[in-house]
Specification:
Blueprint (H helix, E strand, L loop, with lengths): L7 E5 L3 H13 L3 E5 L2 H10 L4 E5 L7 H9 L8 E6 L4 H9 L4 E4 L4 H54 L6 E3 L3 E8 L7 E9 L2 E9 L4 H12 L12 E2 L7 E2 L2 H16 L5 E9 L4 E7 L5 E3 L5 E3 L17 E5 L5 E5 L1 H4 L10 H11 L5 H15 L9 E8 L2
Parallel strand pairs: 1-2, 1-3, 3-4, 4-5
Antiparallel strand pairs: 6-7, 7-18, 8-9, 9-12, 10-11, 12-13, 13-16, 14-15, 14-17, 17-18
Helix pairs in contact: 2-3
């Protein structure tokens, strides 16, 4: 609509007298009026000016009102023009043709001034709603553009965050002489909430861990970053599992105490709504003695050199949910050629396209089928088998774990 007025109206009629009668009424009601004596002239004017309302005679020499209406509708104007056809035709079929051609309303000639005024007000209401819709769509497009810019920026940040998160685990494989550890880390999105790793307690003792923080995304990734800091072998003074020992040499808390210390840290220091599950193990490289704690994590597995597979643990509560909980230590013996596997539930709960989870039995089947492979190759084969199990799609949860080959 034109500012300060009712809008711009195009009057199209081959009769100059009819045009003047309509124009005088329209100007009296506050409209700005442009006249055209033919459909061809009206189309030229409409190409240059987006008229709000068009009053057009149906029967005209050359281009008829219906032909002009169709051409008018095809013009690339953003705003809508309300089209009223002036006609002496009253047959239903002809009226239907006019509606199909793009007309919004009809007035029978001779035109009643009161009826014309009422039809124009109805047209203005429709144009007002259309203008409001256009403005809302413009705002939506502008908002979507801004959201896309924010998304692109966030996406770049998340890609960088994923690179940084990968550096939390500096070594994916390490040989300790009497044993070797290999790590699997595959986030389901840009960043994940899983953490797996190892560190040396002393020359003959190694610690291994697999952690799964609740939730996904940035918050979980930030928590894994903090946990990686307190499980780092590079900073033993900050490692929550290590202690100086009575003789001043490096020592470690028993696995159940490590879980209890984490539980207190989560509830008393960090105080967030997150929690995490964990399997934490300590291996004596000289004797093969294994101690571990299972805190809500999937069952650790021992792959025996003879081909058997054992599940360890009894469940246990997650860390950071309840105060004053007790964690139970589990002990076992590793023989030369045995393997210990701590794994996240992203592996055992990986579903098929139909929703069937892999489960412990499915995991053990994959491990048996690929048991001849070395540590890194076995973990790579596990990812390939999981991908086939999932139907080739993305994993719905982070996939992680740590595999320890004991040589004795």
């Amino acid at each position: 609509m034109a500012a300060g007025g009712r809008g711009q109206v195009l009057v199209v009629d081959d009769s100059r007298a009819q045009r003047r009668i309509l124009t005088m009424s329209l100007q009296r009601w506050g409209y700005m009026v442009t006249e055209a004596g033919s459909g061809e002239e009206a189309l030229r004017l409409a190409r240059e000016t987006p008229f709000d309302i068009v009053l057009s005679d149906w029967v005209m020499p050359g281009m008829s009102g219906l032909e002009f209406c169709k051409a008018f509708r095809a013009l690339p104007h953003e705003s809508y023009g309300y089209f009223i056809m002036l006609t002496s035709k009253s047959e239903k079929g002809e009226v239907a043709d006019g509606l199909d051609g793009g007309a919004d309303d009809f007035l029978t000639k001779p035109v009643s001034a009161d009826e014309l005024h009422a039809r124009l007000r109805a047209g203005q209401r429709i144009l007002g709603m259309q203008a409001e819709l256009v403005e809302k769509n413009r705002l939506i497009r502008a908002t979507l553009d801004e959201l896309q810019k924010l998304y692109d920026s966030l996406d770049r940040d998340l890609i960088e965050a994923r690179r940084l998160q990968q550096t939390l685990v500096r070594d994916r494989h390490r040989d300790f002489g009497r044993g070797a550890a290999s790590i699997l880390m595959k986030p389901s999105g840009h960043v994940g909430g899983d953490l797996a790793g190892f560190f040396e307690i002393s020359a003959r003792r190694v610690a291994l861990y697999s952690v799964d923080v609740s939730g996904h995304g940035v918050a979980s990734a930030l928590m894994t970053a903090r946990l990686a800091g307190v499980l780092s072998g590079a900073s033993p003074d900050q490692n929550i599992a290590l202690t100086g020992g009575l003789d001043g040499r490096r020592d470690a808390w028993p696995p159940e105490m490590v879980a209890a210390r984490f539980n207190r840290m989560m509830l008393e220091e960090i105080q967030v709504d997150q929690y995490f599950t964990m399997a934490y193990a300590e291996v004596d490289l000289a004797s093969g003695r294994l101690q571990l704690v299972q805190a809500g994590h999937p069952y650790p597995l021992i792959l025996r050199a003879g081909g058997g597979i054992e599940l360890l643990g009894a469940g246990g509560p997650p860390i950071g949910l309840l105060p004053n909980v007790t964690f139970q230590r589990v002990e076992a013996q590793l023989a030369p050629g045995d393997r210990l596997f701590l794994v996240s539930d992203g592996v055992t709960e990986c579903p098929t396209p139909e929703g069937e989870e892999l489960g412990d039995e499915g995991l053990m089947r994959i491990l048996r089928d690929n048991g001849q492979l070395d540590g890194p190759a076995l973990l790579e084969a596990l990812v390939w088998n999981l991908n086939a199990h999932a139907g080739g799609g993305d994993f719905p949860d982070d996939v992680s774990g740590v595999l320890f080959d004991y040589r004795g």
